[in-house]
Amino acid sequence: MGDPMTDSEQLQEAAKRHLWMHFTRMNSYQDHEIPVIVRGEGPWVYDSRGRRYLDGLSGLFVVQAGHGRRELAEAAAKQATQLAYFPLWSYAHPNAIELSERLASLAPGSINRVFFTTGGGEAVESAWKLARQYFRSVGEPGRFKVLSRDIAYHGTTMGALSITGLPSIKAPFEPLVPGSVRVANTNFYRAPEYGDNLDAFGRWAADDIERHIEMEGPESVAAVFLEPVQNAGGCFPPPPGYFQRVREICDRHGVLLVSDEVICAFGRLGAWFGADRYGYQPDMITCAKGLTSGYSPLGALLVDDRIMAPFLDGTATFNHGFTFGGHPVSTAVALANLDLFEKEDLVGGVAGRAGSFRAVLDGLRDVPIVGDVRGDGFFYGIELVKDRDTRESFSDDESERLLRGFLSGALFDAGLICRADDRGDPVVQLAPPLICEQEHFDLIGQILRSVLTEACSRL
Ligand SMILES: Cc1ncc(COP(=O)(O)O)c(C=O)c1O
Questions:
Q1: Ligand 1 in contact with 154 (CB < 6 A)?
Q2: Whole-number mean pLDDT of the chain?
Q3: Is 260 touching ligand 1 by the criterion CB < 6 Å?
Q4: What is the pLDDT of residue 45?
Q5: Using an 8 Å Cβ cutoff, are 53 and 44 in contact?
Q6: Is any atom of ligand 1 closer than 6 Å to the C-beta of 263?
Q7: What distance in Å separates the CA atoms of residue 284 and residue 114, rounded to the nearest whole number?
Q8: Taking residues 416-433, what's their average pLDDT?
Q9: What is the pLDDT of residues 147-183, one digit of tens each?
Q10: For tag attachment on the chain, is the N or C end more exposed, with fewer CB atoms within 10 Å?
Q11: CA distance 258 to 284
Q12: Which atom of ligand 1 is nearest to the CA of 232?
């Protein structure tokens, strides 16, 4: 490495020739630079040209503790020196043991068993497979189906993709795994028939789960997969009482409740788990991302004792695993990350500052295209509309021009990393590192105001 400009140009050339970016229209970089991020510090990241950005999305809802945390890097180096790798296939290692114990102590109720993966989608995939095998082992082999919500994202492996409720990312890969059914999400903004009666809307949305269980036949349904706050579509929080009602419905029909907390766990909502935040007891929790703050990949499926019980008998085995699941380095990083969470009270910090963050975003409601601001903790979506009064959304073409043609690039150029997303109605999503404070919220607010105002003038 020498002259930074030449290095940057070489990186561009090599990236354009060889790198296949995820969920990315590669063609859009024919005439544009690929953003190359080279360094991070706290809530900031820097690109290959030395420009600084506020990381308003924690990378991808991941970097809870912020960038450049020496403690986490050192934990990784120390573990790699001592034992870089050993599998959890019939062996254990101290970090996996300690982390499983620690996660069990943090998880609600009798969720005491931890099956490690390398990421979120694998945790979701594992949860579906486990639900199926569990029901076989308790004499209900007909239960194999899963319910999940419209527009929800649960991952890209074939099982997790089948559970995902986004038709456009499923279509190229069909036929998918049979037995996955969509139910209503909790998009209150798009339920005008309920006026301001959020409770009634919540009852309806929960009851939609029961309707589908009954339609499918309860004896065929294994599990319901729900995020505490649904990300795709732009942060749909649960109406009051929603999860309590869903829990009752699941119990009534013998269906397992899986809380997909790949984004929502580890402080994102100001609690260790979204299930704590909204006071419900899942049978399984899937998590990943913030578990290591992204310093090494790791996911986990947290399982209630009741679901584990049949696997403790005789020759029973969950014939499932991943070479890198529960990797020694990743689990060392997760332990150091949880230490850091405790030392700095990151979870309490979010609970304390969430109101200030929200107030900044709510302050944008006077921008004509801001239709709704919703979310919880450090996790918000701003829905963009053509007409605030009628809530008319943008057409596909308009949304394409607005999000891809202008907003994504303009927000980035203005120094803010966030996500302009139109998997549902067009939204801008924000999920900054949990260390962020008022000055960062204010900067997010200023950049959004200026870029969204400019977007209005271009319509
Ligand atoms: C709720 C949810 N589940 C599953 C996943 C998939 O996780 P991963 O990309 O680690 O496989 C994601 C990723 O964003 C997610 O948000």
A1: yes
A2: 96
A3: yes
A4: 98
A5: yes
A6: yes
A7: 10
A8: 93
A9: 999 999 999 999 999 999 999 999 999 999 999 999 9
A10: N
A11: 5
A12: 16
